[in-house]
Amino acid sequence: MIEFDNVTKIYKGNIKAVDQVSLTVPQGSVAVFLGPSGCGKTTLLRMVNRLVPITDGNITVNGMDTKSLNEIELRRKIGYVIQSNGLFPNMTIEQNVTIVPNLLGWDRVKQRDRFNYLMDLVGMEPDQFRNRYPHELSGGQQQRVGIARAMAADPPVMLMDEPFGALDPIIRTHIQKEFLQIQQEVQKTILFVSHDIDEAIKMGDRIAIFKDGSLMQYDAPTELLAQPKNQFVQDFVGTDRSIKSLSLYTVADLLEYKKPKPVKKSSFNLKVDLDTSLREAMAMLFNETEQELLVVDKNNQPICEVTITDVQQYLQENTQTA
Ligand SMILES: Nc1ncnc2c1ncn2[C@@H]1O[C@H](COP(=O)(O)OP(=O)(O)O)[C@@H](O)[C@H]1O
Ligand SMILES: [Mg+2]
């Protein structure tokens, strides 16, 4: 659990970057810090591992005041991932991932086991990448290695500052999905910075929206979309809130609500599986001239058809928006 208690940061020159922020991030959940550039997200994150000193207030991690801990110790307990992954160019992938275990004096076998485990976890073949250098990897692969490295010493807490910000949209969607799968397995307490409402909705158990260093609203995505507390939140969340809330639901949700139509056509250009979000399904239907999607199961066997009308009806009846 991470607790921010009246946290304020004033930089030199009297710049108030964070203004009396209080919020609690429960154990094993993801809180997304969301807001426009300059609203204090990075500052707030970096106060947790004391890369930025706190001006006023307290931050506790699992009940311990961060001020009372040794900085080096603290940073070893907290994984940190940044947009430009921060891999060391002159170290191999294995050396990069095992930096902290190495500092902690783990023996070689344990370090190697950990490397193999983490690479598997982020979907990369350990032996294929072990001796390569960061510049030999794609952006998406580097970012995965960055995540593996942050998790190396199994820290209970992870700070992630726009970790997927530099990736192109398709790879980004893919890695977001993978990240959520990993999180289901590892259940870390995560602070995740983003300026993208769609990403926040997808990734966050809770979303904190900031404006000029002040916390505007801290709620679950569904709450935030349904009941923005003020004009700023409403504008930030966007006018197409009902469309955005579609990211929260999957094809499986739709089928639970509506009896599926049997498959009539013999061929489909568009296929989705049960885990596809309705937002993605909708986007596919908008982008193509097709009228329906074929829903397939894990073995690629057809289950039913879904039309754009089905999605629209679900949207109208299941998303409470103004
Ligand atoms: N080291 C610094 N010294 C002075 N001002 C800073 C420093 N770092 C950030 N700021 C200012 O603090 C505010 C918040 O910045 P930041 O936390 O980086 O916001 P965000 O991550 O939301 O874009 C901005 O006005 C920024 O210019
Ligand atoms: Mg930032």
From TrEMBL:
Signal peptide: none annotated. PROSITE patterns: ABC_TRANSPORTER_1 (PS00211), ABC_TRANSPORTER_2 (PS50893). Keywords: ATP-binding, Nucleotide-binding, Transport. One of its GO terms (molecular function) is ATP hydrolysis activity. InterPro entries: AAA+_ATPase (IPR003593), ABC_transporter-like_ATP-bd (IPR003439), ABC_transporter-like_CS (IPR017871), CBS_dom_sf (IPR046342), P-loop_NTPase (IPR027417). Pfam families: ABC_tran (PF00005). Its EC number is 7.6.2.9. Residues 2-237 form the ABC transporter domain. It catalyses: a quaternary ammonium(out) + ATP + H2O = a quaternary ammonium(in) + ADP + phosphate + H(+). It is an enzyme of class 7 (translocase). SUPFAM superfamilies: CBS-domain pair, P-loop containing nucleoside triphosphate hydrolases. The complex is composed of two ATP-binding proteins (OpuCA), two transmembrane proteins (OpuCB and OpuCD) and a solute-binding protein (OpuCC). Belongs to the ABC transporter superfamily. This is Carnitine transport ATP-binding protein OpuCA.
